[in-house]
Amino acid sequence: MKHIHACADTIERAVGDRTAIGRLTADFPDLTLDDGYAIQDEVARRRLARGERIIGAKLGLTSRAKQVQMSVAQPMYGRLFSEGVHPANEPFVVSSLIHPRVEPEIVFVMKDRLAGPGVTAGDVIAATKYVCCGLEIIDSRYSDFSFTAADVVADNTSEAKIVMGSVMLDPAGIDLGLIGLLLEVDGEQVATAAGAATMGHPAEAVALLANWLGSRGSAIEPGWCIYSGGLTAAVPLNVGSHITATFGHLGSVTVRGV
Ligand code: OOG
Ligand code: MG
Question: Which domains does the chain show, CATH number per domain?
């Protein structure tokens, strides 16, 4: 199955045109998860060649709430790019993306390089500079956010924008698994969760990432920021809506659609 370049073209066109596409696996039913990563790699290479920078990575589908919402029951990873940083407190232009959704996440900012095999959650905590809260603004290039695991991996796990909270904490001093989260849209509570929603503890998700990257000859690099995965189902970002995630210890972060 070697349609990697054609599939990368298709993904890039969807991003550029802000127009949703059908699943790649509809055209190429034999597309594997490895092919999905190869397509993700190819699009990343092109973005880097155009001057973008990688600033970190993201886990996808690490919580049951997300797996159920997307009908894909397996964790995965994608890359985060410098162009994706959206300043907190700045309104977000909804029409700049295809059909953005927002999800609350716990974010790790790393001080040490980490690569598997054998990386544990304890190693992740020890290698972390600080944790903070964040909102990820995802935007699937697929119609109706409908995809298989291979499709969504090829699409860099719906990566679009990230917003970071301003409270920075040393994770050694707190149990991130027991951190509570309240998600509100326009002042109405829509979901609650705890850090443990992502694989029992968000550092477990980051450890999984370090082990995956190690197996591919890559690593989590110092200074990277890692989004450990949505703790709740994602909610649509509409014009005029305020989406706020408030966490125990980590403060709150808001995005407002315009
Ligand atoms: C895939 C991206 C999933 C997460 O945190 O689970 C993700 C999607 O839901 O479109 O970023
Ligand atoms: Mg996410």
Answer: 2-256 (3.90.850.10)
